[in-house]
Design goal:
Pfam family, one: COMM_domain
Number of helices: 6
Protein name: COMM domain-containing protein
Largest sheet: 3 strands, antiparallel
Low-confidence stretches: 193-197
Helix content: 40-55%
Strand order of the largest sheet: 1-2-3
Radius of gyration: 26 Å
Domain COMM: 118-177
């Protein structure tokens, strides 16, 4: 983050309480796609005892950048302090660290919801075909029927593609690796459950 932006964080000290700073962070997260409306801007300006938006805007930019880095880079609890340069007051670092930790799970969940659900495989069929008339090399034509999470038939999508032998070998090799990893995860999960009992 640009060094000059960090210089605006001490404006948070003007707030009456930890809850005021919490409100600012929550409002910024809630409006991450749309930006703050006039009412929120007015409330935050009043909380921080600021006269105009030109004082508020650099602080909001700094906080948005901090929140984005924290959430999108999935910063661990132990590494939050690395987000702040030395020039940020220790009491502000502690306060922001506590609040970021408080909202980390909720914000990560929101981020996953924003990304949407991946479609599920509903059906798969395949057939053999010749790639073209000049080449006698057969290809596998794969038909997948995918269904979006909670949607009904209207959420179905048909995907059709072809694979030559070399591409199919590569894909199968990858699928075997995935299968092995899933099996290892199941074994680890089962052993953890038996250890808990």
């Amino acid at each position: 983050m640009e060094r000059s932006l960090w210089g605006h964080l001490p404006l948070l000290v003007r707030s009456n309480s930890k809850e005021s700073v919490e409100y600012v962070l929550q409002a910024l997260w809630r409006t991450r796609k749309t930006g703050l409306d006039a009412a929120d801007r007015h409330i935050i300006r009043d909380m921080l005892q600021l006269q105009n938006d030109s004082d508020l805007d650099p602080l909001l930019v700094c906080l948005r950048m901090l929140i984005r880095r924290f959430v999108y880079e999935n910063v661990s609890k132990d590494d939050i302090h690395k987000l702040f340069p030395n020039e940020v007051l220790p009491e502000l670092q502690r306060l922001l660290t506590l609040l970021l930790q408080k909202f980390q799970r909720e914000w990560r969940d929101d981020l996953l919801k924003d990304q949407g659900t991946l479609p599920r495989l509903k059906a798969m069929t395949w057939d053999m075909a010749n790639q073209d008339t000049e080449s006698a090399d057969p290809v596998a034509v794969i038909n997948l029927k995918l269904q979006n999470g909670a949607q009904s038939h209207s959420g179905e999508l048909d995907v059709k593609f072809q694979l030559a032998k070399d591409t199919l070998d590569t894909m199968l090799s990858s699928m075997y690796c995935i299968r092995d990893q899933l099996s290892n995860m199941d074994e680890t999960h089962l052993s953890q459950e038996t250890n808990v009992v």
